[in-house]
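User: Sequence recovery, please. Input:
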């Protein structure tokens, strides 16, 4: 069965405003906040901390629905042309999310299950003057570059493909850069069903955020809030459970006997419980035993 995955992009201390650090750690002294290991506010996205509660609700719902959960982290070398003391905020940025430093840590209030997978990106050094259009620091999709922690050397798209994931739900920072690029690539390069959650992301600037939403519309990417998404998923979940129950009932009837009467009952059950005609039941190849019985009935070979 096709699966879904929740991807939380770069919800890291370094992308959160300084005030978010104050809110999370109210008792820290100003001296402590001056130390380089403070980590908050390196490259802050306005109101970045506001995403944490919606993201946690998405995580809880995803656990309930059996979706996979993956996080990504910007994970840069300390020396790279990705950084500059005089950043242009187009291709160069203030130093942020250096591998192993505090700014690269995930927000401490993220409530992740042990089963969630962590991926890092932007790990390669960018040379001065190097074209950075394919640079993985901007995108969790980039092949062969997004690498799981440990020695797995596994890209996020490959990881998801191996697990039959065809739908991704994306939140994190920032909408107009990493979240947006990741969503576009999953839609356009992997042909996946992509939903970005509006209250689980924030843009660096409203104009570039609006421009990204326009690209989402053109690409057929859904953009909806966490409450709506969770409500829709709950409906799907209940439909799935009803359908599973109907299947169990049908299998019960079948296991009784494959006599004409049994098959007649089975066809009626298909109509009643799944709204399927015999032809549709045949086309639905998910249950081989059911299909074989339907074929026997249609062929008249059950006698
Ligand atoms: Zn970066």
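Assistant: Recovered sequence (303 residues):
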């Amino acid at each position: 069965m096709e699966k879904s995955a929740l991807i939380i992009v770069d919800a890291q201390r370094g992308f959160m405003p300084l005030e978010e650090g104050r809110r999370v750690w109210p008792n820290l002294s100003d001296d402590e906040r001056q130390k380089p290991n403070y980590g908050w506010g390196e490259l802050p996205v306005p109101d970045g901390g506001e995403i944490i509660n919606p993201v946690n609700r998405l995580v809880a719902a995803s656990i309930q629905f059996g979706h996979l959960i993956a996080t990504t982290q910007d994970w840069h070398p300390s020396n790279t042309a990705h950084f500059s003391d005089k950043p242009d905020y187009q291709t160069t940025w203030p130093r942020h999310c250096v591998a192993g430093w505090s700014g690269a840590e995930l927000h401490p209030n993220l409530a992740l299950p042990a089963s969630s997978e962590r991926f890092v990106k932007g790990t390669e050094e960018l040379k001065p003057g190097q074209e950075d259009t394919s640079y993985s620091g901007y995108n969790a999709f980039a092949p062969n570059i997004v690498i799981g922690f440990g020695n797995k050397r596994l890209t996020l798209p490959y990881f998801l493909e191996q697990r039959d994931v065809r739908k991704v739900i994306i939140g994190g920072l920032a909408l107009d850069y990493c979240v947006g690029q990741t969503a576009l690539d999953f839609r356009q390069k992997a042909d996946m069903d992509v939903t970005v959650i509006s209250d689980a992301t924030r843009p660096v600037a409203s104009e570039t955020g609006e421009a990204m939403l326009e690209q989402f519309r053109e690409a057929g990417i859904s953009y909806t809030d966490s409450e709506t998404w969770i409500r829709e998923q709950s409906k799907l979940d209940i439909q799935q459970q009803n359908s599973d129950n109907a299947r169990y009932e049908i299998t019960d009837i079948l296991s009784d006997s494959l006599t004409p009467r049994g098959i007649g009952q089975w066809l009626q059950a298909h109509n009643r419980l799944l709204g399927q005609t015999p032809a549709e039941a045949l086309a639905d190849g998910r249950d081989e035993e059911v299909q074989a019985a339907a074929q026997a009935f249609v062929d008249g070979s059950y006698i």
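Residues 87 and 93 are 5 Å apart (CA to CA).
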